């Protein structure tokens, strides 16, 4: 499947991924190559084959709903780019 | 000291021939002297290592020790280490000091192992050559113009160069086994769920699995015993006792049924690599194994299925890197959208971006059934091939990689060609099986890796078969020139 520039631009937007203008054509080519490669899967008849969600067919384990984590906010926020008064700072989102 | 195996070092420490501090200082100095040639270590943790070594020496003096007490190792920089930079080979995490230890980090520390530092790797473990690392490529100690394999390339190069007796790795599509093969060491990817993924930075969660990289199967058995086990913090960890891997090493191979998948010996396999594997098969016959031909008919579908499943899971997992809570943040964002787009655009390298975009596309509205669902169905077919095979044989044997180490830059511009270097390893991850690579010869001075694949939780049998082979061969004992 050959992707066009517009589609790659849309994918980059969905992934919130900045891509340099200069590299755009290379991504268009590489992504088209990769998708063309994986499309050989279409030749396989998989009707009635259940998708494999877990290699050992394990079910998701549930645990009792109780507090297991201690409060480590200060430690976690020490590695954050910007914080103030225990909050993570981002550019203004509400006018 | 650096030429001794982990098991020999453990015996030396217990006998008081040298202390863990002496051993640790020796290896730290060796890394300082030799690693500039290889670039296998991103962060050296000298102070932490010496403190751990002194604590181990204190325990050695009391005699209450295990096989890893005082043993230095290098840790792949994908495992979180409290207070120590955990970069995952990415600019995104260049400034990230993990606020906690991964379960594997904790377990190795509890076993008394001494962490010397963190090893270089492909960015977020996405790569087969270690060329996607933000910290630059790792060189193969057997030929400094060639790649060490990836993604655990730093760990493989360091163990091969005798910078440490053991290292950790992770394997999503071959990232332990392929670099082990290309660097001439031993590496095992355990059954999915055997080693906890908690604190191991996620790439593709249904495929990722940690394991040890060592020179011998015996050493891998000792490391894996310490790394494996149930962990309630990892929701896919399997609650099942860990086998006594070391105790199983000595079992004779008489009557062991080994299957040779015809699909692993066909077109694409380098003839000289094939000849080395044939010679190894003869060794196994001499050891009493019964060798038979088998078929894994869906082998050719493994790489394409993987390059849907792995990018899809990667695009979800890597959405957490947003420039808000930790990791790289761009300068002066105009608004929240700009903060996300530029932080991620600057923080991730080209291969990671490619995979995030492939995954985003495969999961986007209207395409899910055609790509992700289809790949998960094909994955079921691939698993069934293995389940059918294990009704006839105990182990599956073949090459780990179709060629020996390739040149730096040789495949860097062509993703699909690079992806095909994992053609023999990827199916094992899709099926969740354990697999191992051991050195089995040389082609033009470059190591050849032999892959053994076992049934679920059959790590003991894999290590046993590898150990018996290493009793009658010495490929694993060869040292690259300049690193004696």
Entry keywords:
heterodimer, A: 95 residues, mainly alpha, two-stranded antiparallel sheet, 2 strands, 4% strand, B: 484 residues, alpha/beta, Amidase signature (AS) enzymes, 8-stranded mixed beta sheet, 39% helix
Number of β-strand runs of chain B: 11
Shape of chain A: flat
Largest sheet of chain A: 2 strands, antiparallel
What's the gyration radius of chain B in Å? Answer: 21 Å
Strand order of the largest sheet of chain A: 1-2
- Biggest chain pair interface: A-B, 53 and 73 residues
Order of helices and strands of chain B: HHEHEHEHEHEEHHEHEHHHHEHHEEH
Multimeric status of the protein: heterodimer
Structural class of chain B, by secondary structure, is alpha/beta
**Uncertain regions spanning at least 5 consecutive residues of chain B:** none
Describe this structure in words.
The complex is a heterodimer of chains A (95) and B (484). Chain A has 95 residues and is mainly α. Chain A has three helices and two strands. Chain A is flat, with a radius of gyration of 22 Å. Chain A starts with a helix and ends in a 7-residue tail after the last strand. Chain B has 484 residues and is of the alpha/beta class. Chain B contains 16 helices and eleven strands. Chain B has helices at 6-14, 20-38, 46-62, 103-110, 153-160, 177-183, 217-227, 245-248, 271-286, 302-317, 336-347, 350-363, 369-389, 415-419, 426-431, 459-472; strands at residues 41-44, 72-76, 114-119, 166-170, 186-189, 210-214, 257-261, 290-294, 395-399, 435-443, 446-454. The model of chain B has no long low-confidence stretch (mean pLDDT 97). Classes of the chains: A mainly alpha (95), B alpha/beta (484).
Write the topology of this structure.
The complex is a heterodimer of chains A (95) and B (484).
Chain A lengths: L4 H10 L9 H15 L34 H6 L4 E2 L2 E2 L7
Antiparallel strand pairs in A: 1-2
Chain B lengths: L5 H9 L5 H19 L2 E4 L1 H17 L9 E5 L26 H8 L3 E6 L33 H8 L5 E5 L6 H7 L2 E4 L20 E5 L2 H11 L17 H4 L8 E5 L9 H16 L3 E5 L7 H16 L18 H12 L2 H14 L5 H21 L5 E5 L15 H5 L6 H6 L3 E9 L2 E9 L4 H14 L12
Parallel strand pairs in B: 2-3, 7-8, 7-9
Antiparallel strand pairs in B: 1-3, 4-6, 5-6, 5-10, 9-11, 10-11
Helix pairs in contact in B: 2-3, 5-6, 7-16, 10-12, 10-13
């Amino acid at each position: 499947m050959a992707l066009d520039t517009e589609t790659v631009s849309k994918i980059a937007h969905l992934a919130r991924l900045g891509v340099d203008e200069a590299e755009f054509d290379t991504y268009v080519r590489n992504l088209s190559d990769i998708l063309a490669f994986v499309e050989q899967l279409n030749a396989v008849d998989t009707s009635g084959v259940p998708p494999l969600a877990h290699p050992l067919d394990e079910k998701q384990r549930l645990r009792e709903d109780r507090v297991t984590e201690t409060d480590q906010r200060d430690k976690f926020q020490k590695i954050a780019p910007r914080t103030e008064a225990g909050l993570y700072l981002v550019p203004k989102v509400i006018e | 000291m650096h030429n001794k195996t982990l098991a020999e070092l453990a015996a030396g420490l217990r006998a008081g021939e040298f202390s863990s501090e002496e051993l640790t200082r020796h290896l730290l100095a060796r890394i300082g002297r030799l690693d500039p040639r290889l670039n296998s270590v991103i962060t050296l943790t000298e102070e932490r290592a010496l403190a751990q070594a002194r604590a181990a020496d204190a325990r050695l003096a009391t005699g209450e020790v295990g096989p890893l007490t005082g043993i230095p190792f290098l840790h792949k920089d994908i495992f979180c280490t409290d207070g120590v930079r955990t970069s995952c080979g990415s600019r995104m995490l260049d400034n990230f000091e993990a606020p906690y230890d991964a379960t594997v980090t904790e377990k190795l520390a509890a076993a008394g192992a001494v962490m010397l530092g963190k090893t270089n790797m492909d960015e977020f473990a996405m790569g087969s050559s270690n060329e996607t690392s933000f910290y630059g490529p790792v060189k193969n100690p057997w030929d400094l113009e060639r790649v060490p394999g990836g993604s655990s390339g730093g760990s493989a190069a360091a163990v091969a160069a005798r910078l440490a007796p053991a290292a950790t790795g992770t394997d999503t599509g071959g990232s332990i086994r392929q670099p082990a093969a290309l660097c001439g060491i031993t590496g095992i990817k355990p059954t999915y769920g055997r080693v906890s993924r908690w604190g191991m930075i996620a790439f593709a969660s249904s495929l990722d699995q940690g394991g040890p990289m060592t020179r011998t199967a015996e050493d891998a058995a000792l490391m894996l015993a310490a790394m494996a086990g149930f962990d309630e913090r990892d929701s896919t960890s399997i609650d099942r006792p860990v086998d006594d891997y070391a105790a199983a090493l000595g079992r004779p191979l008489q009557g062991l049924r080994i299957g040779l998948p015809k699909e692993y010996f066909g077109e694409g396999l380098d003839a000289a690599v094939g000849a080395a594997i044939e010679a190894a098969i003869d060794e196994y016959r001499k050891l009493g194994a019964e060798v038979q031909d088998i078929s894994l008919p869906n082998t050719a579908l493994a790489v394409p299925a993987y390059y849907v499943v792995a990018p899809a899971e990667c695009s979800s997992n890597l959405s957490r890197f947003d420039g808000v809570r930790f990791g790289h943040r761009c300068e002066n964002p105009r608004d929240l959208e700009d903060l996300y787009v530029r932080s991620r655009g600057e923080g991730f390298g080209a291969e990671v971006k490619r995979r995030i975009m492939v995954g985003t596309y495969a999961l986007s509205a209207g395409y899910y059934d055609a790509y992700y669902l289809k790949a998960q169905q094909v994955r079921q077919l691939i698993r069934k091939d293995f389940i059918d095979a294990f009704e006839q044989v105990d182990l599956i044997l073949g090459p780990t990689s179709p060629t020996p180490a390739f040149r730096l830059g040789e495949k860097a511009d062509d993703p699909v060609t690079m992806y095909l270097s994992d053609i023999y390893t990827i199916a094992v991850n899709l099926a969740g099986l354990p697999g191992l690579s051991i050195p089995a010869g040389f082609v033009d001075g470059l190591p050849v890796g032999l892959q053994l694949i076992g049934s679920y939780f059959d790590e003991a049998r894999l290590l046993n078969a590898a150990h018996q082979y290493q009793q009658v061969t010495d490929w694993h004992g060869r040292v690259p020139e300049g690193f004696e």
